[in-house]
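Structure ticket #2291
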Amino acid sequence: MILGPTLFLRCINDTCNHLFKSSSYQSGNTFGSRVYSDGKVYSPMLPKETEYSKCPNCSVFARNEDLKKRIERSEDIFLVEDNYSESDPNISYLVDLTIDEYVELLHTTDFIEDKAEEIHIRFLLMFKFNDRIRNRKRIFNNQYEQNIHEENLVYLIENLDISIEENKLLKAEFLRNLRRFDESLAILETIEDEEFDFVVNQIKKKCNIKSYLTFELILPDE
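Resolution: structure written out below.
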């Protein structure tokens, strides 16, 4: 992984002067990647930039790709390393949304463009919960969080296009996460693409022992 210049990104709200500090990357690789049952791929040498942000000054949400496109067409971007002060309240790091902020984003009027984007945001919210498992932490801190996660999974189950085999596999996984093991197994039996056999078999084993948390997949030998 090779770092690029530090970027200073101005808030998308024209009335706000807040700047986000963001690292950029010139190259990366997929060595050491790990694949999980919820569909997430973690590649330590291929950093994934955050997709959404919330300004700490004006509380406006933004798509980070829109933010960067907008700045690149103006004079508000500075490709420098040192033009930054840790104590400056008008500058903060560009960081991923919290669970509560993802929930807030899903309920922000007129932000989400279409159903596909809502599904994508809901996947990001689901990953935030499952990242706790990946980091060996408790998945929920309270009943409210459990309710949010389970309601989110139900939405994904009901809205994924299961004419696509990969989505059918994800639906089975989300049913398992909700402890609906028999329904998960029934979906798995309908998956015909042999490419997914290694995933199907591992999820089946988890269902059979009533295990419901996301897990790292054992990949087949190349």
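Closing remark: DSSP finds seven helices and nine strands in the chain.
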